[in-house]
Amino acid sequence: MKALIYRAPWTVDLGEIDEPAPAARDDVVVELRAIGICGTDLGIVSGSYPPVRPPVVLGHEAAGVVHAVGAGITDLAPGDRVVLDPTYSCQYCRMCVSGRSNHCLHKDGTECGVSADGMFSRLHLTQRRFLHRFPDSVPFTAAALTEPLSCAVTGVKQLVLRTDHTAVVVGGGPMGVLYSHALAVRGVLGAVVEVSAARREVMSAALPDGWSAAADLDAAMRTVGAGDIGFDIVVETSGRAVDAAMARLARGGQLLAVGLGGPAISVDPAVFADHSKRLVGSIDSLDGSFAAALDLIVSGRIPAEKIVSHVFSLSDYAKAFGLLGIDLDNGLRTAPEGALKIVLTP
């Protein structure tokens, strides 16, 4: 079967791989119906994500139907609609048993779409414990956003929130929009900063009620009423504005940094003591956030379909990546313009 294989920076193609079949008792083969393109995929293709181990099938945000099950599976059957949790955890290493399974010591070599074959293909082999059912009423394209939303739900859990906090999310890509929704369901309102006017227009239609778009941090301060005090909450998703965000953080404020890449930051230690500022990080899904994210989508509290701006077939991957600023023909990466979340269908 065909799969989108990363071989080296700027070198990806639809190559042939073997169709998987259940081998272990708890194995499940899923026929994929929708797979989201993540910022990690863009980083891998452009050569800026060192953990990748080529050749590897890309993709880790997916939903589909059960195709085949191992002999020990009794609660799933072919045709059941499922979303796949791609974050492997062994459940017995020091990180897993101490509540940090997103940093499992056996993650290297098992990370879906990075160091182990991912989901940009027709079929994918996984284990029962990484599958979650969802109802027929939810489109596959919406369900495929469960994984990135779960990362946002996990990140928001790192913050101590009040409904009167002033908040800003830096970066108007899919993760920035999902973080605005994750904060909104906790009663926090604010603004999303996006420098690209074209992308700002696209993402504005996908923001939750009570949230607005801003061209820069200073405009966002005026929009949310932060005045000269600064933001109470900043979520930095781009990796490129941590210093600028820290400078505009109120005393006692919290900055959640989730962007990969970007320049090194320079922080005066006094801001943590004298100003009581907090800088925290977050990655992947943790503490039941995957199930919680799926519930937010199924219940309609987060309208995932509004965040999907384009759907392409897997064979049109080059066009899809191009809309996200990845020019595979010329080896160039530019800022995405008129696209938000793009989903591929096998």
Structure write-up:
Its cofactor is Zn(2+). It holds the Pfam family ADH_N. Keywords: Metal-binding, Oxidoreductase, Zinc. This is Threonine dehydrogenase-like Zn-dependent dehydrogenase. InterPro entries: ADH-like_N, ADH_Zn_CS, ER, GroES-like_sf, NAD(P)-bd_dom_sf, Zn_alcohol_dh. The protein has 346 residues and is of the alpha/beta class. The chain folds into two domains: 2-149 and 285-345, Medium-chain alcohol dehydrogenases, catalytic domain (Quinone Oxidoreductase, Chain A, domain 1, Alpha-Beta Complex); 159-281, Rossmann fold, CATH 3.40.50. 25% of the residues lie in helices and 27% in strands. It has twelve helices and 18 strands. The chain has helices at residues 39-45, 94-97, 140-143, 146-157, 174-184, 197-204, 217-224, 242-247, 270-273, 289-298, 304-307, 317-323; strands at 2-8, 11-16, 27-36, 56-57, 61-69, 81-84, 123-127, 131-133, 167-170, 190-193, 211-214, 231-236, 249-257, 278-281, 308-313, 326-327, 332-333, 341-345. The strands form four sheets. Strands 3, 5, 6, 7, 8, 15 and 18 form a seven-stranded mixed sheet that branches. A six-stranded parallel sheet has the order 11-10-9-12-13-14, with helices on both faces. Helix 6 (197-204) links the parallel strand 10 and strand 11 (211-214). Helix 4 (146-157) packs across helix 5 and helix 4 (146-157) packs across helix 10 (289-298). The radius of gyration is 20 Å and the shape is globular. The chain starts with a strand and ends with a strand. The mean pLDDT is 96.
